[in-house]
Amino acid sequence: MRYLSAQQVARLVTIDPAARPYYRALADGVRALVMDGQIPVRVRMPAERHLAETLGVSRTTVTAAYDLLRERGYLESRRGSGSWTALPDPATTADNPWHDTGDGLIPLHSAAPPAPSALTAAVAEAVEDLPRYAMGNGYDPLGLPALRERIAARYTARGVATRPEQIVVTTGSQFAIHLAMGLLLGPGDPVLVESPTFPHALDAARRRGARIVPVGVSPEGWQPDLVAAGLRQSGARLAYLMPDFHNPIGALMPDPVRAAVAEAARRTDTILLVDETWAELALDDVPATSPAAAFDTDSRVISIGSADKLWWGGLRVGWIRATAALARRLALFRSSVDIASPVLEQLVVARLFDRLEESRAERRRTLRASRDALVSALGRHLPEWTFTVPPGGGALWVRLDRGGATPLAEAATAHGVRLAPGPWFGPEGTLEGCLRLPYTLPPSVLEEAVPRIRAARDGVSAGSARVPDPLVAMV
Question: In this structure, which of 33, 355, 388, 393 has its CB flanked by the most CB atoms within 10 Å?
Answer without folding.
Answer: 393
